[in-house]
Design a protein that fits this description.
This protein is an all-alpha fold. 80% of the residues lie in helices and 0% in strands.
Length: 241
């Protein structure tokens, strides 16, 4: 067991248990900072994310916005599979790409041009969903764009989390199928990863019972922007050193 991976999953599983996304969004850049490559980060984080979302849907299935989910499945999933394969087949400076993306994302509340770009993309939902699929396949960070568009739909807190959870779960399942069938057929049988995968659901049950209904979503969104900005800077610095 690697202590840096355990700490990463512990922190990001708390976030995902509350909002439906977090293990891949935050866990991927953190593991890249610790020196793990993109594919290994996927293999470690994807099953954890799937298990957390599965348990979230056991209580929230009836709250899902299925109209949105059907459009997401049509426009995002094919591009996730395609660009996940591309990310493994060609040389991409993933640290630089993710760093720039996170910094732009963190500044969206303060820079009008970024706000307008995101609003424009949301207005053309198929384009937004296709872009999200491409980003998630390349970087594992589509959860940020997913949260942006679902929160924009003015759903209830429970419906928002359930819709994000089923969308994120679908992302992860197709990533696992792609990695297993095409890229790394034996890695998901590695028993050394089991403890990492099981840690997330254990944290979920604790957070669900004691934290979820007390969390202030506005404050979380405010502080998460600083967190994204800091990780983006670290990744850019790592690329330049």
């Amino acid at each position: 067991m690697a202590i840096d991976i355990l700490i990463t999953i512990f922190i990001t599983a708390i976030v995902q248990s509350i909002f439906g996304t977090g293990v891949l969004l935050f866990g991927t850049p953190i593991l890249l900072i610790f020196g793990y490559n993109f594919q290994i980060a996927l293999i470690i984080l994807l099953p954890t994310s799937v298990l957390i979302n599965f348990f979230q849907l056991k209580t929230g299935f009836g709250q899902i916005d299925f109209k949105f989910y059907k459009r997401l499945f049509l426009f995002s999933i094919p591009l996730i599979v395609l660009f996940l394969y591309v990310s493994n087949s060609i040389s991409i400076n993933i640290h630089l790409f993710i760093g720039v993306f996170l910094i732009l994302l963190s500044l969206k509340e303060n820079i009008v041009y970024i706000q307008n770009l995101i609003k424009l993309l949301i207005q053309y939902e198929p384009l937004y969903l296709m872009f999200m699929g491409m980003i998630h396949g390349l970087t594992n960070l589509g959860g940020a764009l997913l949260s942006g568009i679902v929160f924009n739909n003015n759903l209830t807190k429970e419906s928002t989390r359930a819709t994000i959870a089923i969308s994120y779960l679908t992302f992860a399942l197709f990533q696992i199928m792609t990695l297993t069938a095409v890229l790394y057929p034996n890695e998901f049988l590695n028993k050394n990863y089991f403890i990492y995968w099981l840690l997330g659901p254990g944290i979920f049950f604790i957070v669900e019972k004691y934290v979820f209904f007390r969390i202030d979503e506005k404050k979380y969104g405010y502080y998460s922007n600083y967190f994204l900005f800091a990780i983006g800077l670290v990744l850019l610095s790592k690329n330049l050193l």
